[in-house]
Amino acid sequence: MQGKFITFEGIDGAGKSTHIESVRAFLTARGKVVCMTREPGGTALGEAIRQLFLERSMCPASEALLVFSARRQHLEQVVWPALARGEWVLCDRFTDATFAYQGGGRELGFDAIATLAQWTHPDFSPDLTLLFDIPPAAAHERVAHRGAMDRIESEQSVFHERVREAYLRRARAEPERIKVLSSDQSKDTVRARVLAFAQQLVQMADD
Fold first, then answer.
1. What is the pLDDT of residues 101-156, one digit of tens each?
2. Which of 45, 58, 73, 83 could cysteine-pair with 62, CB 3.0–4.6 Å?
3. 157 within 8 A of 102, measured Cβ to Cβ
4. Gyration radius (Cα) of the chain, Å
């Protein structure tokens, strides 16, 4: 049986990472084998690209090309084999992040990112995407408490506003796949909604 691919998205500080473990525990308790991974990253090449991406200054086009390079390796080496084994793959960010950060934040536009996406993973997308939404000012406060920020987290608020709007635009275009969760609610409230969406996908897969 083919596995399922769930991605977790949102601007930095939206709280998505908090809920990935909840979904993992939920699925494991229901007998699912879970593969947890992230982007950029997930492979030796991807992690090396991640370090470059977060630490080195580069032009917007180079950012997009780097993340798609890491993504293809990630799909070939981790995601697609896990799905073929029937595992449920939970991924911290995927192509929606590139639409948001490079397409929106860096203003490359959606068309360029769509072209790269179609070339990198034609006709492949997540079964479910959970988008954690929060105003950038509130997200910045959360990120600032973690300590030193990377070069993406350190961008000006207008950049993060563009990223957020690009995410929401994606959600409006694909409401069946992308579920928006307001992260300025209590963690328990958000967690309940997250697990409800996960439960729906489990039921559909088991039917």
1. 999 999 999 999 999 999 999 999 999 999 999 988 787 777 666 666 778 887 88
2. 58
3. no
4. 16
Q: Per the CATH hierarchy, to which homologous superfamily does domain 5-206 belong?
A: P-loop containing nucleotide triphosphate hydrolases (3.40.50.300)
164's torsion region: left (phi>0), alpha (psi -120 to 50) or beta? alpha
For the chain, the residue count is 207
Chain centroid to CA 206? 25
- Tokens 């006709």, residue? 123
Q: Buried b vs exposed e over 122-139: b needs ≥16 C-beta within 10 Å?
A: eeeebbbbbbbbbbbeeb
Closest CA to 11 of 71, 75, 96, 69: 96
Q: How far is CA 147 from the centre of its chain?
A: 22
- What lies within 8 Å, CB to CB, of 78 at 6+ separation is 35, 37, 42, 43, 89
Q: What would the two tokens of residue 30 be?
A: 């229901």
Measured N-to-C along each axis, helices 157-173 and 136-144 cross at an angle, to the nearest 10 degrees, of: 120
How far is residue 129 from each of residues 44, 105, 117, measured CA to CA in Å? Answer: 25, 20, 16
Strand residues in 80-177 grouped as ranges (E): 88-92, 128-133
| Residue 124, helix vs strand vs coil | coil
d(CA 139, CA 132): 11
Q: Round to whole Å and give the CA distance between 167 and 50.
A: 21
* pLDDT single digits (tens) 68-79: 999 999 999 999
